[in-house]
UniProtKB/TrEMBL annotation:
Superkingdom of source: Bacteria
Gene3D superfamilies registered for this protein in UniProt: NAD(P)-binding Rossmann-like Domain
Region (Disordered): 19-38
Organism lineage string: Bacteria, Pseudomonadati, Pseudomonadota, Alphaproteobacteria, Rhodobacterales
InterPro entries, sorted: NAD(P)-bd_dom_sf, SDR_fam
GO MF entry, a single one: oxidoreductase activity, acting on CH-OH group of donors
Protein name: NAD(P)-dependent dehydrogenase, short-chain alcohol dehydrogenase family
Length: 283
């Protein structure tokens, strides 16, 4: 697969906006749906853009109704809703800060009130900043990353569990940085390590209930995280350091979530998939 050239660019926002990115991330599923998620309802946090958008659209193609929780990126969220409807499914948009337990409870309640069930939880929403000088990293940014990347996963899962039945699936987003580390992303890497440990521990806790818990640890993927985090000159040719020589696209990651969320992954729990362009890390 040839990767489009990524020019220098940046956005002064976190989360950043997908509609401003050049080139646009590729979220489009590559294959016809086969009904793998027919009759299912999924809640995708951070589903407005990036990996979350690709997962939402793919799940819709496979027959799921999709609720999207996001912070405040209304334009991107409305576009994802349109794409889900274009796939012949139904979408629910839920804006709000999931770093608040009350908001997580309200989000899950909205899903149940609208669709009457919840079968799949994708904890994916997150924030990221560079730790240019870790000693000077502000308390506010540390707290925001912990709230978004750790607390939100725990609170949303707590709210979802009373509604998840045997056969349900939870998939948490981790990162290659949870395994390999990243000197310029210390706090972010720490939070992604937490989501990895959360997945493995929760998998053991819920195994006897028939609820599977897994994680996906993407490598460098062309999403709004990148122009929202990195200086413009660092964005140019993002991902070229991987063995495959390019950044991944969101659609290439979404297939891992589909595998783990569907019955294809029925013997997987406590595991991690690594769409990262050939970066070899400890499993």
């Amino acid at each position: 697969m040839n990767s489009p050239h990524i020019p220098a660019q940046s956005q002064d926002a976190m989360p950043a906006a997908e509609y401003k990115m050049d080139p646009a991330p590729d979220y489009s599923p590559r294959h016809p749906g086969s009904g793998k998620l027919k009759g299912k309802v999924a809640l995708v946090t951070g589903g407005d853009s990036g990996i979350g958008r690709a997962v939402s659209v793919l799940f819709a193609r496979e027959g799921a109704k999709v609720a999207i929780a996001y912070l405040e990126e209304d334009r991107d969220a409305q576009e994802t809703k349109r794409l889900i409807k274009e796939e012949g499914s139904e979408a629910l948009l839920i804006p709000g800060d999931l770093g608040s337990k009350a908001n997580c409870e309200a989000a899950v309640k909205s899903v149940i009130d609208t669709f009457g069930q919840l079968d799949i939880l994708i904890n994916n929403g997150a924030q990221q900043w560079l730790d240019a000088d870790f000693a000077d990293l502000s308390e506010d940014k540390i707290e925001r990353m912990i709230a978004s990347n750790i607390k939100a996963y725990m609170f949303t899962t707590q709210a979802a569990l009373p509604h998840l039945k045997e056969g349900a699936s939870i998939v948490n987003t981790s990162s290659v940085n949870a395994f390999a580390g990243m000197g310029s992303l210390i706090t972010y890497s720490m939070t992604r390590g937490a989501s990895l440990a959360f997945s493995r521990s929760l998998a053991g806790n819920l195994a006897d209930k028939g609820i599977r818990v897994n994680s996906v640890a993407p490598g460098p993927i062309w999403t709004p995280f990148i122009p929202g985090t990195m200086p413009a000159d660092k964005v140019e040719n993002f991902g070229s350091e991987t063995p495959m020589g390019r950044a991944g696209q969101p659609w290439e990651v979404a297939t891992a979530y589909l595998f783990l969320a569907s019955s294809d992954g029925s013997y997987y729990t406590g595991q991690t998939l690594h769409p990262n362009g050939g970066m070899v890390v400890g499993a």
